[in-house]
Amino acid sequence: MKVLAAMSGGVDSAVAAARMVDAGHDVTGVHLALSKNPQSFRSGARGCCSKEDSHDARRAADVLGIPFYVWDLSDRFIDDVVDDFVAEYAAGRTPNPCLRCNEKIKFSAVLERGLSLGFDAVATGHYAIREVVGDRVHLRRAVDPSKDQSYVLGVLTQDQLRHAQFPLGDTPKEQVRAEAATRGLAVASKPDSHDICFIADGDTGAFLDSRLGTAPGDIVDETGTKVGSHDGTHRFTIGQRRGLNLGVPAEDGRPRYVLDITPVDNTVRVGPAESLRVTTIVGDRPRWVDGPPADGIDALVQIRAHGDAHPCRIRLSGDELTIDLVEAVEGVAPGQAAVVYSRDRLIGSVTITGTHATVPAT
């Protein structure tokens, strides 16, 4: 195949490209320039998508002996990822920009351009297992559960998976680093990237302030009594405990958490941890790997990139999915992705729109 290897400048994408070369494919490396000013993106151990990452990717391509290009996708990244991120927080939701980047950039914009240039597939360093069964393509969890990234790939469609390659899914991360060192790749010991690449200093609240401004409002308890104030609802997410700066302590002395965010009246509601527990999750904007699942099946749902998978039963009504959990979970925020699995096989994902504390009668 003619393979376009997306090279971020990290160890995973470098080894993924190397394995594609070893498999005999005609490989070309491409680094995505996602910022007009790369220095404003993360540098060193804390980030990705910086100028130094571009240099690291180019050096890795040189070691592998493959052509290398930089594609400027900064305009589309701002429109589809950054602006979406800001709009979601402004609406009181908690987005996952990595899922949006995979959906809109890496497996949409890049794949579209790659196919138009005659490439057959895009290879990335994501930890997941792509499995062809008959005329369908399945996506399964990686063998290394601590590095599994199938959650952030939950937005991919069957057509996109047909043109995707994930060479690292069958290998633990330690072995990938050792392989990189053996191949003479300088990124073998480079730290993993963390947090949000387009927030240079890691201060999400300050970044959102710069885009949305400040809007002082009230923090109230479950009775509606004011217990504090804030500078903008965009600085909060469901389940948050730190940084609340409450002026009135709880009567029982226990910590309080963000239970609800209402941008319309600029209010944040807080309460005890048990008030965060939900047993039903509702979501829309479905992205199914292999078409809509059967209604009423037992499954597993994951609501955070590195969270646990929770047993559940799913009920589908048009483009809305209701997820009835076997046991209550805490801190489920609208805007997050609920990614559904059948054992270790990914079924698809929805964007969470709401939750309920009790399972509705059937």
Explain this structure to me?
It is globular and about 65 Å long. The chain has helices at 11-22, 51-64, 74-90, 97-116, 158-162, 173-182, 204-212, and strands spanning 2-6, 26-33, 68-72, 121-123, 128-133, 136-141, 164-165, 217-220, 226-230, 257-262, 267-271, 278-288, 297-302, 309-317, 320-329, 337-342, 345-356. Helices cover 24% and strands 30% of the residues. Mean pLDDT is 92; it is low at 42-47. It contains 7 helices and 17 strands. With 362 residues, the protein is an alpha/beta fold. Helix 1 (11-22) crosses helix 6 (173-182). The chain has a 6-stranded antiparallel β-barrel with strand order 12-15-14-13-16-17. The protein has a 5-stranded parallel beta sheet with strand order 3-2-1-4-7, with helices on both faces. The chain has a 4-stranded mixed beta sheet with strand order 9-8-11-10, with no helix packed on it.
Layout of secondary structure:
Elements: E1 2-6, H1 11-22, E2 26-33, H2 51-64, E3 68-72, H3 74-90, H4 97-116, E4 121-123, E5 128-133, E6 136-141, H5 158-162, E7 164-165, H6 173-182, H7 204-212, E8 217-220, E9 226-230, E10 257-262, E11 267-271, E12 278-288, E13 297-302, E14 309-317, E15 320-329, E16 337-342, E17 345-356
Parallel strand pairs: 1-2, 1-4, 2-3, 4-7, 8-11
Antiparallel strand pairs: 5-6, 8-9, 10-11, 12-15, 12-17, 13-14, 13-16, 14-15, 16-17
β-strand percent reads: 25-35%
Rounded mean pLDDT score? 92
Helix content: 10-25%
The low-confidence runs, each spanning 5 or more residues with pLDDT under 50, are 42-47
Number of strands: 17
The description of the largest β-sheet is: 6 strands, antiparallel, barrel
- Total helices: the number is 7
What shape does the CA trace take?
A: globular
Quickly give the structural class. Answer: alpha/beta
Q: How far from one another are the termini?
A: 50 Å
- Rg from alpha-carbon coordinates: 22 Å
- Give the spatial strand order of the biggest sheet: 12-15-14-13-16-17
The H-and-E topology, N to C, reads as EHEHEHHEEEHEHHEEEEEEEEEE
